[in-house]
UniProtKB/TrEMBL annotation:
The keyword tRNA processing applies. Signal peptide: none annotated. It comes from Caenorhabditis angaria. GO terms for cellular component: cytoplasm; nucleus. This is CMP/dCMP-type deaminase domain-containing protein.
Length: 259
């Protein structure tokens, strides 16, 4: 297939590429719990006290031991905390609110750190999906071109941004565009596992049904771009989004294209 004229591509660049992400990543409501802390007047005692404390519970090890005002996290209950510190400090124990889960995104971290100092290891790619910086001019041009082609050709797969194969609806209950496309994927002689779509992008006119979405899982597709929601779609339209299902053994990225 020959490339579209550049002028036509430019007309198509005014699109919105929307990642369909798990609420785990997009949720900005930080869950909290209470923990017993020791408030010290003499900050020089902090090191000595920490030295004698047990590790924080495994599910709370994202928390820094010492707060901004010198409070030290001691234990989950008052009883445990009183046992852990000398008698002279017991009247200075108090409950504080802390984030109960580790922040995953930069936006979550910015909220969590105001509740209690928290460790954070940024995932730059995930943050780029959330803040939109993943949409480079090159990606916009690429997605514009092939999402436009999918309007007429229904389902197109590409590997390393090179055309691989396509599929359109045929008569028969199972002959959906995705099923036709995966049936035309070239065999990989060097691969014994038959994961023919590893690393591929798939552009669809319509959001896939459960059968087609599972076929894309089986073929190890990397990214799926679709233009229109479907009444039986399972990537955005359904309350159950297949690509976010924890129990499946492969997860591809999903993007809705709006023009």
């Amino acid at each position: 297939m020959t490339d579209e004229p550049l002028t036509k591509i430019r007309k198509l660049e005014n699109i919105n590429i929307i990642p369909i992400l798990s609420p785990t990543f997009t949720n900005l409501s930080i869950e909290t719990t209470k923990f017993v802390a020791l408030k010290l007047e003499d900050k020089r005692s902090i090191g000595k006290i920490i030295k004698n404390l047990k590790e924080l519970p495994e599910n709370l090890r994202h928390l820094k031991r010492v707060g901004k005002n010198g409070q030290i996290l001691i234990a989950e209950t008052i009883e445990e905390a009183e046992f852990a510190v000398d008698e002279e400090f017991r009247n200075s124990l108090e409950k504080v609110v802390v984030p109960s889960t580790k922040p995953i995104t930069r936006a979550q971290f910015e909220i969590a750190k105001h509740i209690w100092p928290t460790s954070f290891h940024p995932d730059k790619y995930l943050d780029s999906l959330i803040d939109g910086t993943f949409k480079t001019p090159e990606l916009i041009e690429y997605v514009s071109k092939w999402s436009h082609e999918a309007e007429n050709r229904q389902c197109i797969s590409l590997q390393n941004q090179e055309y691989l194969c396509e599929g359109t609806s045929q008569s028969g209950p199972l002959r959906h565009p995705v099923m036709e496309m995966v049936g035309r994927m070239p065999k990989r002689e060097e691969s014994s596992e038959n994961y023919l779509g590893t690393g591929c992008d798939v552009f669809l006119r319509d959001e896939p049904c459960a059968m087609c979405a599972m076929a894309l899982v089986h073929f190890r597709i990397k990214r799926v771009f679709f233009n229109h929601n479907s009444s039986n779609g399972v990537l955005e339209s359904s309350s159950w989004q297949l690509h976010l299902e924890p129990s499946i053994n492969h997860h591809y990225e999903v993007y809705k294209i709006e023009k």
